[in-house]
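Q: Fold this one first, please.
A: Sequence and structure below.
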Amino acid sequence: MNQFERDIGGRPAVLEYLDGEYRVMTPGAFVVCAVTGTKIPLEALRYWSVDLQEPYAGPAAALKRMQEKGLTPK
């Protein structure tokens, strides 16, 4: 079991994604990956888009979303 497979209780947080950091607008235990739907504990959140205001579970999910939006070559 890895950190993304465990059951994360509590409620989702609402964040404002900034360059290199995020601001907690509504406290919570996790955010949901915009691509995979995986719950991401706040302490494990490393990938997000400032422009799209979305969190991602990892680099593969972030790359997939950027490709979908036409922001990187496919």
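Q: Good. Now the second chain.
A: Here it is, same layout.
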Amino acid sequence: MTGEFHKGQYAVVTGAYWAFTLTDGALRMLVLLFLHDLGRSPLEIAGLFLFYEFFGIVTNLAGGALGARFGLRLTLLLGLLLQGGALAGLATQATALSLPLVMGLQALSGIAKDLTKMSAKSYIKFLVAAGDQGGLMRIVAWLTGSKNTLKGAGFFLGGLLLQTFGFATACWSMAAGIALAWLVSVVVLPAAAGKAKTVGKPREWFAHDRRVLWLSISRCALFAARDAWFVIALPLFLAVQWQWSHAQVGAFMAVWVMGYGVIQALAPSWLGSPKAFAEGDAKQGVRRAGALVLWTVALWVPLVALARLTDPTPPQVVLGLGGFALIFATCSALHSYLILAYASGERVSQQVGAYYAANASGRLLGTLLSGVLVHLALGPAEGLRWTLWGASLLVGIAALAGWPLHREERAQAASASPSELQQDGNLPRS
């Protein structure tokens, strides 16, 4: 599918991704707050999400190969089916939830999430006209930004449903929504998109373009930096330190993620005009990589500012997290565009899957760090502060991984148009 934009298929892929994301955000908040009410420790709660993220790593690698072998429609439908099964399982066992059972169903949901994400993101590469880099960036930014906005809405929905209707009813209602998205996808989407003649070995997915490798390393550290404070430390800080209700915690997390999603969708407007991403301009790849490094380094400002506060007030937290959202969303928008710009040939789903395996690795690392630091800290305020310092260290790693990416871009640009590159004296050097 190349040559023109397939609006109907894009609408179905986006709708399915939205439906999944809404339930995923709600389920995460449901499980976190439900287990906190049962008296589970921060480390035990983090352990549940670790299982979820570990299976995300495995799923992205296996799902990329599965999508290349059988097509992206199969992996998308399988992701939706597994999420519906996880929600139904939680609903039927709501009165007798044990930690191993929740861990198993969370693992199922983690598999579903990454199958759905890998499929939806890879699908975009086949739905946008070949060579339309500006269109690709706008559409990827919109898809990812709207997804994060709905994830934020899911956080609020999860807290509200738990407080209003209870755990089982919340899970059943979300399972019904997923079933509807599955049925529409079965009817509309073609089976052939994303199929490759050969699957190849995992090392070949990075060997084709080393920029994918460095971008994946940077992505891993970047999302570890976010989840180090976001997954466990922040919601428990709000619930314990400030004595907020479930709905209040869910609403605050929702507003942050929704704002982050809106910023991500708008990021192309300040990252550069669509023409700036036109294929064939040798300078643009270097500039994109340089911009990614600079935006990543800028994340230190809100993180360090918040980490230096011993007893942060609501206005300080809102201001700091707002600054982080602006910068992080811009970095993430660049990442999401670049992986699809770099992925090429028949193995798009495998390269995208390997990249999102690195993303899941980062979330696992960040979740583990969050649980450990909050568990060791003397209180929720101290736990939040420790995780913010840990996030600052991870941001440094993400920025360092951007320099080899920048060097690879310079090498590719030099081989494509050496005279043009040499004439630009303003380009940063690696």
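Q: Anything worth noting on the second one?
A: The chain has one domain: 7-191+204-423.
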